[in-house]
């Protein structure tokens, strides 16, 4: 018994260390009650689940498909745990999630933490791109932020993550605060507010961005002084100069122009434990960076901020009014004053979103992070993808860009680097195609029918392209007048259908009409030619199709999901077998998860098909016994891959 008691004390202490039950005394009491059950003969293997269940009274809300969206509408700042009860890691994180919920309930106003069993309510997981369990996402007024599991899954990390996106209240008290603030950040939004000004819309918008830093100057005197100095900063043209590493104690880098002054402190973040100190010296266009704390090089990739002559900015600079909202950025016009309603949250969001990236960008990893980062507006991207630079299409897109600001991101992409190749693949652009102008959504959504759909893309014909046609194309998209572009193989010919066997072939352009046929139950196998499991399954699937070919209300089909795209489906593995039961469109979908033997699938079809059917054909339709099972699901030329 002494050993058991010692084990219990160790277990409880371990829970405290990992944040499972924190310092709550009643949590330890619940654990001891569970241990008492073990002492009375219960199995120790159920001890941990019992401890967790003993605390169920403090668990967060468990949502489902019917109440998820209403709850999120009523609670715009909510963190969600997408989990599966059978998942070991989900079981580990759920008690931590409950404890984090207790901590965040103390916020004013409280931050809600909820969870949803995504293995049961798969449509919610699909809607928000859940690919693994557990997944944690924070929803803030429509923006969605993912939790980085590499930082740990303790309650402390969860609370810190939520605080990062909900507590963004930076106040500039004097000019020195402004100088330090602008030195540290490239993208800045500064509110200049007098005494008693209602800044609630500004505070709300400040929660929506990872890469834009917000700050306020409050009070009649402070706001006016900071507005004056901010105008001087706006007149300066500053650059971030990449210095990189050095094996020597000094390094020289050429500046873009004469007359620049460079700061001594590196622009990129410095860790507290780093002792490196630097001195910047400029002669003409040459910048020399010397390390001053040691006679040796440095291993970090440092950057320095360099600006033009400040004396010019003293003489002529813009004057920013109070109240106003000013945005500073390292591109295009470099600063802008918001000219809309400062109490309109959505308008302010759109204005900032339009200026947080250049009007025209080149595709690289940094650009991908910016245009695909979560934001409240989920701005789509207009890509011009071409194997060669300086094409006619590129100049046309650049000409249209100023009229598209705030409506879409405009991005130019080649087809050489890995990120460019992935972009082309995402946009459905073949490697040997000419220049393509395509609009790609960065988010899924809900169509007019209420059915969720994955991110869509749209193509504009290159022939006769003009800037006016590009702008008209975006306007048509905004008004819902465009049909999505779907990658598709050619529609099978009548001869292909006649000789193709009992398994019907669908392609991207025929999938919706076939699967949404209200009179038929439609079974679809989404496969990949290179998939070994698909190869193993294909003769079994064809055997099922031959057995049920007499059932006129059931259509058994296949679709190569690597060569065709389909609306409303997110295929995450191969083979994926889905039934679209007969009935009103849009149909609900039923995924097959069982044995792939024909008899087992037949039983499942009887359970889920709308139309009832007989396993054997009428005598007049019965074929010869013992028909061989043909090679089947894949094309003959694919079987040798």
TrEMBL record:
Tell me the domain of life: Eukaryota
Could you tell me which Pfam families the record lists for this protein? Thioredoxin, Thioredoxin_6
Q: Name one GO cellular component term.
A: endoplasmic reticulum
Domain Thioredoxin, by residue range, is 48-167, 483-610
Q: Which family does it belong to?
A: Belongs to the protein disulfide isomerase family.
Signal peptide feature range: none
Q: Which GO terms describe its biological process?
A: protein folding; response to endoplasmic reticulum stress
Q: What is the protein named? A: Thioredoxin domain-containing protein
SUPFAM superfamilies in the record: Thioredoxin-like (SSF52833)
State one molecular function term (GO).
Answer: protein disulfide isomerase activity
Q: Where is this region: Disordered?
A: 612-641
